[in-house]
Structure formats: C-alpha cells, structure tokens
Amino acid sequence: MTWFSTNWNIMFFPVYYSGHLATAQEKQSPMKKFRECSRIFGEDGLTLKLFLKRTAPFSILWTLTNYLYLLALKKLTATDVSALFCCNKAFVFLLSWIVLKDRFMGVRIVAAIMAITGIVMMAYADNFHADSIIGVAFAVGSASTSALYKVLFKMFLGSANFGEAAHFISTLGFFNLIFISFTPVILYFTKVEHWSSFAALPWGCLCGMAGLWLAFNILVNVGVVLTYPILISIGTVLSVPGNAAVDLLKQEVIFNVVRLAATIIICIGFLLMLLPEEWDEITLRFINSLKEKKSEEHVDDITDSSTHLRSRSRANGTVSIPLA
C-alpha cells in the first residue's frame, strides 16, 4: 500500500504544470519549468549524483513514515493514531533545537512534555496491552520519522515554493518506483507480508487511497502558498475529532477517560507548538493596546460628562470656574 501510493507522487509535477498553463500569463515549456523548479537541488539543478544523494534519505523516511502509520492502524483506531501522529510537532521542535540550533522556547518544552505524557497515557488506556504498546510504538515511530524528514529538508534544501515542492515530491515518486520496488518483493518472499493474486486485490480501494494521499500532498502545498502554514497545522489537529466521530458512528471504539484525556493533552500540546516565537511580546502588546484603548475611552467619557455639566450650568445662569 505504501509503495503503490507513493508511486502516485509522480503525478504531482504534471498537475502543477497543468495549473501553471491554466493560470500563468507567460507560459513556459515543460522542460524550462522543470529546470527552473530543479533549483531546489542546487544551482546545477538535478544531476544523477544529487538524485541519489538527496532523494534517497528522504524517500526512505517518507516510506517509513507511511509504512509505520499503516502498521499502527492495524493495532489502534484511527483516532488514536491521528492523535499520536500530532506529536511530530513536538519532535520537530526538539530536533530543530538540537540540530538546527533554533531558539529555545519554554512553552514548546511544555508542549513536548504534554506530548510525551499523552503517549504514555495512550499506552496505559488499554492497561499496557501488548497490541496497544506495539501500536503506540508504530505511531510514535511514524511521527518521529516525519519530524526527521522535515528537519533534514530544512537543513539541506531550505524552504521551497510550490513548484519546487511539486518537483521534489515527483522525484521521490520516481525514486520509489525505481529503487524501493524490491522492498515489497523481499517482504513477500520472507513471509513478513502476504497478498493474494493481483486479480483479487481491492484495486478500487487502493486507487482511492492513493488518490486521496496525492490530493492531500497537493492541497497541503497549495494551502501553504495561498493561506498560512498555521491553518494547515490546525487542519491536521482537526483530523482527530473527525476520526473520533467516524469511529463512534461505526462503534469501533469506546472512549474511556484515560484515552480521552490523552487525546486532549496531545492536541493541546500540538496547538501550543503553533505559537509564534514572539508570542509573549505579541501578547503583551495586545494587552497594552487594550489598556490604552480602555483609558482613552475613560478620558472621553470624563470629557463628555464635564461638557454636559458646563452646558447645564450655563442654562441655569451660573458659571463654573475650573480649579487649578
């Protein structure tokens, strides 16, 4: 499933180029646009050496992230797995702090502690049952490899625009098709995994999942360009209540107090991770502006009341003398 879905990433750049043809005033040829987007790999563009050197580690991390996520879904409900995957924000912060020397933020340390607490509580929710612990380990492993992917991307490739992201993800799809294809075969012959004949496979479900996976990757990158990254992150955490609603409707899970508390703690920690680096200064400026606005309104009320008193005094034939 992971290999098949990742192959669909090859279509990312053609979809991007179709959008370019439909919206751009100055249209470029496919090869010219391809070379322009290849600058994410360096000034020389995409060479065979860079293809192997830069694409291989990211392709492996991509495969591990999705493979471990699907393994976790075999042991846990979709709600638990999506909640545990939200811990990747905490892992990104810890890795960025250690590797990239990003700014230390106390609130994000608190969020990381909350994420770890939620992980332990999620394992405890089923009294540390073997399947539960294995499922939690798979989900946390998926979140960890996802975090490592993001940190390494920032370290080696920096920030990418929409076209460069489309080029890079399509390149991952090609690498997956060429070099990762032997992995499912090895797993099959070593009897780690088993599948029936190709005619009996649920191709409709597989294509549907792969199409949704591709749509997710496209929409995430489009959303970052057209809106704000924080909105995409909020969309990620909203998958938790969405999956919870589906699980409840299908009556697959009964939410006990521990599982519910663990989910809420992880989601709160995820939201704390979204706070900007200058959140304390922004909060202080906002509070000060509210105080200044309130004091100005108070002064205006006093001025209006004194003006009203003067007008009443003149109407009664008296003159009010201001005191020094």
From TrEMBL:
Domain EamA, chain residue ranges per copy: 57-123
Transmembrane feature ranges: 51-69, 81-100, 106-125, 132-153, 165-189, 201-220, 226-246, 253-275
UniProt keyword annotations, A-Z: Membrane, Transmembrane, Transmembrane helix
Region (Disordered): 301-324
UniProt biased composition (Polar residues): 304-324
Name assigned to this protein: Solute carrier family 35 member F4 isoform X2
Organism: Erinaceus europaeus
